[in-house]
């Protein structure tokens, strides 16, 4: 469980994120939508302790994040792969750093296979496409068996069809390994496919404008439901107003 209480993050005198309050259960994915520059990455950085100075509190299972030894899986925009390690080594990097003893070879192989990385195992990051690198970063996060999962536009480098496949694959793996997850995206459709809750942030400094309980979460093929279109229209209308008018 991630509890975010009155979180405000500043860069010097500039406020990037303002008074965020969220409670993300162990079996929940919060999809975060917000305009460019509103502080979505800043939120991921604060939750992953890349940014350590902030106002308010972040608790993981009721312990301040700074004092917890929680395993955090992150898929960041720059993928965070080490260029001198191959795909297999990069995928196992998180667990080997955190807890070599617990590295589960069978599970690692399963995730690598599920993410279609078997044939790429001995390749190096400089010979991979953006989408392939995203899959390696995703594999690394799952292999870590994290207690919380933070994803910053993890599928942005993929074409539409591969992106849909990856969303489905991600959800399949996640459903079998549920963990509190924050998933940042620019895509309304992706938020509906992935988020149990959809959080809409304001323009900078990012504040929470709305949290939507997503009735389509967990459906096998949400895009085929007529409610999918209605919900995306509703969100689109809300965003159009919410992001253009200062509230
Ligand atoms: N290290 C930094 N120093 C000063 N300002 C920063 C720093 N990092 C980010 N910012 C500013 O903080 C604001 C929020 O940035 P952030 O990257 O969190 O936004 P974002 O919502 O993720 O944007 P995008 O959707 O474009 O990726 C922006 O105005 C950005 O310019």
TrEMBL record:
It is found in: Cell membrane. Pfam families: ABC_tran (PF00005). The keyword Membrane applies. GO terms for molecular function: ATP binding; ATP hydrolysis activity. It is a peripheral membrane protein. Residues 2-228 form the ABC transporter domain. Keywords: ATP-binding, Cell membrane, Membrane, Nucleotide-binding, Transport. This is NitT/TauT family transport system ATP-binding protein. Gene3D superfamilies: P-loop containing nucleotide triphosphate hydrolases (3.40.50.300). CDD domains: ABC_NrtD_SsuB_transporters. InterPro entries: AAA+_ATPase (IPR003593), ABC_transporter-like_ATP-bd (IPR003439), ABC_transporter-like_CS (IPR017871), ABC_transporter_ATP-bind (IPR050166), P-loop_NTPase (IPR027417). SMART domains: AAA. The keyword Oxidoreductase does not apply. One of its GO terms (cellular component) is plasma membrane. It comes from the Bacteria. Coiled coil: none annotated. It comes from Caloramator quimbayensis.
């Amino acid at each position: 469980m991630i509890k975010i209480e009155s979180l405000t993050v500043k860069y010097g005198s500039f406020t990037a994120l303002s008074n965020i309050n969220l409670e993300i259960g162990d079996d929940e994915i919060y999809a975060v939508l917000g305009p460019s520059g509103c502080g979505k990455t800043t939120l991921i950085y604060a939750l992953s302790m890349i940014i350590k100075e902030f106002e308010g509190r972040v608790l993981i299972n009721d312990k301040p994040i700074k004092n917890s030894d929680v395993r955090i899986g992150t898929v960041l925009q720059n993928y965070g792969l080490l260029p001198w390690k191959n795909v297999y080594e990069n995928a196992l990097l998180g667990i080997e750093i955190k807890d070599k003893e617990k590295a589960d070879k069978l599970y690692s192989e399963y995730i690598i296979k599920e993410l279609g990385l078997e044939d790429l195992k001995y390749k190096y990051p400089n010979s991979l496409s953006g989408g392939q690198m995203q899959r390696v970063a995703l594999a690394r996060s799952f292999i870590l068996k994290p207690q919380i999962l933070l994803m910053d536009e993890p599928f942005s480098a993929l074409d539409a069809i591969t992106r849909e496949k990856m969303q489905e694959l991600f959800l399949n793996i996640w459903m079998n390994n549920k963990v509190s997850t924050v998933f940042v995206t620019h895509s309304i459709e992706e938020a509906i496919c992935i988020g149990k809750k959809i959080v809409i942030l304001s323009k900078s400094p990012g504040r929470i404008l709305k949290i939507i309980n997503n009735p389509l979460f967990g459906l096998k093929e949400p895009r085929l439901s007529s409610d999918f279109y209605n919900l995306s229209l509703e969100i689109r209308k809300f965003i159009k107003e919410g992001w253009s008018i200062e509230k």
